[in-house]
Every structure is written in C-alpha cells, then in structure tokens.
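Support case: PPS complex. Customer-provided input:
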Amino acid sequence: MHTFNYKVVWILGLPSAGKSTLARSLQVRIHEIGLGCLMLDGDELRAGLSKNLGFSASDREENIRRAAEIAHLSAKSGILSVAAFITPQEVHRNVAQFILKDVPVLWVWAKCSREVCYQRDVKGLYRKHANGHLSNLTGADGEFEDPPSSFLQIDTENNDIEDSTNLIWNQLFCLDKPGCERGGTFRQDKVLR
Ligand SMILES: Nc1ncnc2c1ncn2[C@@H]1O[C@H](COP(=O)(O)OS(=O)(=O)O)[C@@H](OP(=O)(O)O)[C@H]1O
Ligand SMILES: Nc1ncnc2c1ncn2[C@@H]1O[C@H](COP(=O)(O)OP(=O)(O)O)[C@@H](O)[C@H]1O
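Agent response - structure generated as follows:
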C-alpha cells in the first residue's frame, strides 16, 4: 500500500524554469510504483480546455481556476494530480488555494534565475519577445512574484533533474512505506539550495 502525503503537487515558476520537466519526471516515478496520476500542464490545457484564453492577468486567473477545479475533482476521486503552471502572481495562487482549500497540496517553486531561463529558452519565447514578436511574457515584460517561503523551493539552476525530483518525491511520499527506495536513496548530505 502506497500513501502520498498530498493529493495535488502544484509546480510553478518562470518559462523554462523546469516545471514540465519535473512534472514528467515525477509522473515516471509514480508509474514506476504502479500508480497513476493526472498531469495538468499549462501548454496542454491551453491547447484544449483553455484554448480561448490568452495571457492577460484575468485570462491567467481563469486558466488557473479551471486547472484547480480539475485538480479538485481529481483529488475527490482519489487520484493524485501534478500541475505545472506559471501561476505568476499571488492573485493566481490565491484562486487555486481557495478552490483547493480542503485538499492537501504540495506547492513547489521551480526556482531558476531569469538569466538561466533566458539561456535555456526551451520554446524560443524569450527570443521572440526580444525580437518584438511576443508581449506579456512572464519573466520579460510580464510579472512574476516570488512565492512565500512556505512553498517548497527547488533550485533547478544548480541541481540536476534527478536531485530535484528526489526532493519533491521525498515530500510527496511517506518515506516509511515500501516503494520509497528511490526517495530513500536521496543524498541528504547534498545541499539543495
Ligand atoms: N506571453 C506568455 N507568457 C507566458 N507563457 C506563454 C506566453 N505565450 C505563450 N506562452 C506559453 O504558455 C505556457 C504557460 O502557460 P500557463 O498556463 O502555465 O500560464 S499561466 O499559469 O496561466 O500564467 C508557457 O509554457 P512554459 O514555458 O512551460 O511555462 C508557454 O509555452
Ligand atoms: N533541475 C532541473 N529541473 C528541471 N529542468 C531542468 C533542471 N536542470 C536542467 N533542466 C532543463 O531545463 C529545461 C526546462 O524546460 P521545461 O521543463 O520545459 O520548463 P518549463 O515547463 O518551466 O517551461 C529543460 O531543458 C530541462 O532539461
């Protein structure tokens, strides 16, 4: 019997900070122990359910509201969900927190400097912005407010994907239960800033 400490893992951060990578990596771990989870990723939601939404503050709020409502339904059905959204401002986080108030949520900040996000530029968005072809881009002309210290901070700039995933995994899982070997082998002596 495997028991999670949370019913939702909500990963937020700048574009290219590593949200989707960590969410996918977590999903692989969950599958490895024979469990399923619902993946909620900003790009995927915006390709369908949130197709009509853009990137104004109010559209982002509506996007987050929809994602949180799905995570809530999923939790009520006993299915863990892993959400990866920029969730840029406190107002957006408040919307999700209100909807998920009766659900245990692990709030994770994929923390990476703007400079490194710009270098990674996984989808070429920062370059598009620099060339004047994209506006309201979070981390460029779009605001991102650092979350409070109660959020689990994962420094995705100075740690690799494996260590970053381990840190989330160790919070998510009851470590005294079977099936936590990978989490258990996490090197506690390595400082994750
Ligand atoms: N202007 C602007 N600002 C931010 N992001 C943009 C923008 N335009 C397109 N994209 C793409 O949308 C992805 C982020 O969607 P989210 O649903 O996570 O955003 S939000 O939480 O509602 O703010 C984001 O994905 P990530 O790079 O994974 O964050 C981009 O692929
Ligand atoms: N510790 C880490 N966690 C997550 N991604 C990392 C890490 N270190 C390097 N990366 C790299 O950073 C990039 C993050 O891209 P992505 O996950 O698409 O970001 P986001 O979903 O936040 O836009 C990937 O190329 C990934 O391999």
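The radius of gyration is 16 Å.

Case will auto-close in a few days if no follow-up is received.
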